[in-house]
Amino acid sequence: MSVVLRAQGLGKRYRRRWALSDCTLEVPAGRVVGLVGPNGAGKSTLLGLAAGLLTPTSGTIEVCGERPAAGSAQLAKVGFVAQDTPTYARLTVAEHLKLGSRLSPGWDMRLATERVRRLGLPPDQRAGNLSGGQRAQLALTLALAKRPRLLILDEPVAALDPLARNEFLRELGDATADREISVVHSSHLVSDVERVCDHLIVLVGSRVRIAGDVRELLAAHHLISAPHFDPAGLPPGVHAVSADRTGRGTTLLVRADGPIDGHGWTVAPVGLEELVLAYMSGSTPVLEGQR
């Protein structure tokens, strides 16, 4: 498997506080990866390190096989859209595109101008006068027109209304469908991850709890219910992730190495949100072979 981002024992400290510590993960190339985790998990710090905006305190990180921000050629390989979708308030849309062409050696002006036209962004409009959704689309245009190998999105739709968020995600899906580009999309909204991502990483306390292809992860996990059940009595190859006990019995979310029928349980499929919440709330380690 080709890897576009690799971190090993990665950490970032601000004075006495560690924003990220001992983080080890791999991001596969050519995938749209959803990065999910609670507040304080270190997602934004990790993405800032990957974009070269921050310098590690400990450990190592490689992006496209090199140290982030190692030079202009390396910077050109990464497109980054932060949560506040930064643009220059006094510059017009057209001036943003012109600036991008000067700063990015691989700039695709045809792609940029076509996106601006199709999205209805007025070329003579200053960014400060655009709506939040329009600024987000402009920031995405600037990142895509670099023709990066890795596109990093740090919750760029968090503050948008549902209509603007829907439009942004649709455009993201269209923009990445036919291009050789890897994407890491950090989001608190599992529905957004489910819509555009085909690979999942759950980060909790700087550590990867689970990672892998979304379809394979969902196929390997199940909800099993029984009136009276002890999680310690699971057969080999079936591992409990979370348990919910009520007066009517016990429901377990489990991952299994193979079929789990024939044990007298009631078996149901798992949704992505159920899967994510189970790993965010527990201490289950990363699945072997799916880092």
TrEMBL record:
- This one is known as ABC transporter ATP-binding protein
Q: Supply one GO molecular-function term.
A: ATP binding
Q: SMART domains from the entry?
A: AAA
Keywords on this record? ATP-binding, Nucleotide-binding, Transport
What sequence ranges are listed for the domain ABC transporter?
5-230
Q: Which organism is it from?
A: Actinoallomurus liliacearum
